[in-house]
Amino acid sequence: MSTTRRLKPALRSPAPPETLARPGSRKIVSWNLLRRVGANVASIATLIEREKPDLFLMQEATKDIAALQAKVGGDYAWTPLPGRIHGLAMWSPVPFVRPPEVIDLPHGAMFERISQILDLGDFGVANVHLSHGQVLNRRQLRRIAQNLPERGAVIGDYNLVGPTLLPGFRDVGPRLPTHAMAKVVPLRIDRCLVRGLTCQSRSVLPRGLSDHHPIIVHLAPTPEAVLPADERVRGMAALVGRLRRAAGRGGGAAPDRSAPGARSSFREGSR
Question: Which residues of 97-226 form beta strands (DSSP E)?
Answer without folding.
Answer: 101-105, 113-119, 124-129, 152-157, 170-171, 179-181, 185-187, 190-195, 197-204, 215-221
